[in-house]
Amino acid sequence: MYYKFSGFTQKLAGAWASEAYSPQGLKPVVSTEAPPIIFATPTKLTSSVTAYDYAGKNKVPELQKFFQKADGVPIHLKRGLPDQMLYRTTMALTVGGTIYCLIALYMASQPKNK
Amino acid sequence: MTHQTHAYHMVNPSPWPLTGAFSALLLTSGLVMWFHYNSFTILYIGLLTNMLTMYQWWRDIVREGTYQGHHTPIVQKGLRYGMILFIVSEIFFFAGFFWAFYHSSLVPTHDLGGCWPPTGITPLNPLEVPLLNTSVLLASGVSITWAHHSLMEGKRNSMNQALLITIILGVYFTALQTSEYLETSFSISDGIYGSTFFMATGFHGLHVIIGTSFLTVCLLRQFKFHFTSKHHFGFEAAAWYWHFVDVVWLFLYVSIYWWGS
Is A83 a domain residue? Predict the structure, then answer.
């Protein structure tokens, strides 16, 4: 029995023996052979080109350190003031809106005065 | 010892399920107030609290997964099951509208003229804009697959371009469908034809907008380096949803636009 890894279910799934001829995980990401140089300018491999900076640099590692601080603050407030303000606004609108809604529904359920 | 000895995610207490539930109350009651008393206030508050809840809940999930590392393989498996089950529930949602369409169109009643399309209805030509819409969504399915493979192969520029193309095609579909809606000679209140047509295609259009928004969030996250070549479930979930939207359109096109004309 041959197996392959199913990216969909993240489990091993049955496969035919022919799969062994194109094994998963061994596909070359970048061609190791340089394409033939036609003009004087050298060809570039994707790996040798630095990503353009139009999107800014990768801030994920520092954000990971920031959000992993063991200060006991829950995730929805971890950033401090901006999180607090947004939370309070949301809660105020929710609670206020619900009270307003319940009053409106109470009034709507009263029989119309003839 | 405060460290957990298992790989599951014990979520911090969160207020968003509560605000989400109440926003649902406000949305439904708001619709009632709008329909019967011509008042928009509760509906607006409901929409606002709903948007705020979605933004903060999903922001927190990104923080928990990308920044805190809680999305271990087993947690990711749960997320996969969740997304699949959600899409299945949406399939059933659309099944209802297709049932209504086939119920009405396979045995058209006497007052429709005993035929489908009913007497007096001029349906849209399926070989014009609807066919273009089909090709737009099929092409977007190709571009999103290209984006996925680029992501898995670490080709950042390709991924950005392919995902952007997918989003542009999604927006293009929405624009085309909007112009088609303005062009129809029939409206939603034109008998059962109008009802089935606009309910089915209308909800589909809403799902295209939702899918496009999901993909846009993925694009922004991709710009911020959130996805790695091995771990990018948010993108996969968006891609699954997008393919689902595409398949629903194919069923809509074949059933309502083509067979139903």
Answer: yes
User: With the CA atoms of A9, A14, A18 and A22 taken in that order, what torsion angle do they form, in degrees rounded to the nearest 10?
Assistant: 30
Domain housing A107 = 79-113
B38 touches chain A (CB under 8 A): no
Tens of pLDDT, residues B57-72: 999 999 999 999 999 9
Cβ contact, residue pair A97, B49, below 8 Å: yes
- What is the spatial distance between Cα B98 and Cα B66, in angstroms, rounded to a whole number? 39
Confirm whether A27 is domain-assigned.
no
Look up residue A3 and give its DSSP letter: E
Count of domains for chain A: 1
Which pLDDT score, from 0 to 100, does residue A49 have? 45
CB B117 within 8 A of CB B260: yes
Question: Does residue A42 form part of some domain?
Answer: no
- Whether B182 has a pLDDT exceeding 90, the answer reads yes
3-state secondary structure B144-155: HHHHHHHHHCCC
Alpha-carbon gap: A75 to the closest alpha carbon of chain B (Å): 6
For residue A46, the 8-state DSSP code is: G
**What residues pair up with A2 in beta bridges, in sequence order?**
A15
Nearest neighbour of B226 by CB, restricted to A60, A66, A90: A60
Nearest to B240 by CA among B67, B119, B57, B91: B91
Q: How close does chain B come to A16, measured CA to CA in Å?
A: 23
Name the band, by pLDDT with cuts 50, 70 and 90, for residue A6.
Answer: confident
| Residue B229, pLDDT above cutoff 60 | yes
Residue A101 lies in a domain: yes
- Spell B185-195 as b/e; 16+ CB within 10 A means b: ebeeebbbbbb
* Position A14 confidence tier, pLDDT thresholds 50, 70, 90: confident
Phi, psi dihedrals of residue B215, rounded to the nearest 5°: -65, -35
When CB atoms are compared, the residue of A46, A94, A97 closest to B42 is A97
The complex's ipTM works out to: 0.86
Single pTM value for the model: 0.83
When CB atoms are compared, the residue of B42, B52, B155 closest to A46 is B155
The answer on pLDDT for A39 being more than 70 is no
In chain B the domains, ranked by start, together with CATH numbers, are 1-70 (1.10.287.70), 72-258 (1.20.120.80)
